[in-house]
Write a sequence for this structure.
């Protein structure tokens, strides 16, 4: 059986850890490949971006490599998401002109093209990036 004094010390230690700034929620930029659908010009990619970095972003964009059905890089794109305040979710669509959706086997985030905070220092946008896919097409780092 735990003594009341030991229980109180354990409770105080747990409370101080929870309040510690070092235990704060980790910065995250969620980027979901939501869908690929045929469009007039080729293939339309729909992304859902969620800024949980702790900073309002004035501009954020990523360089993405598109792999074809044979695993060859068919092009490099810059996906621009514009301004995105902290806590905001945004849906953005991009068209791959002249490429069918069936000919896209994988998308790879090659790097951050731009990451600018509205005020102060920008977060580590690549380190905070959490790519996911709701499609059969692989999407990641």
């Amino acid at each position: 059986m735990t003594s009341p004094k030991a229980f109180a010390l354990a409770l105080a230690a747990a409370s101080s850890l929870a309040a510690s700034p070092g235990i704060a929620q980790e910065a995250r930029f969620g980027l979901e490949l939501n869908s690929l659908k045929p469009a007039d010009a080729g293939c339309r990619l729909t992304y859902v971006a969620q800024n949980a970095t702790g900073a309002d972003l004035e501009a954020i964009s990523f360089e993405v490599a598109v792999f074809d059905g044979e695993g060859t890089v068919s092009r490099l794109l810059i996906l621009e998401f514009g301004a995105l305040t902290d806590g905001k979710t945004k849906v953005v669509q991009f068209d791959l002109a002249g490429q069918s959706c069936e000919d896209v086997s994988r998308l790879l985030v090659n790097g951050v093209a731009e990451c600018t905070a509205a005020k102060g220092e920008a977060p580590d946008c690549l380190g905070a990036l959490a790519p996911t896919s709701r499609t059969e097409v692989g999407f990641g780092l």
User: Anything to note?
Assistant: The chain has one domain: 28-140.
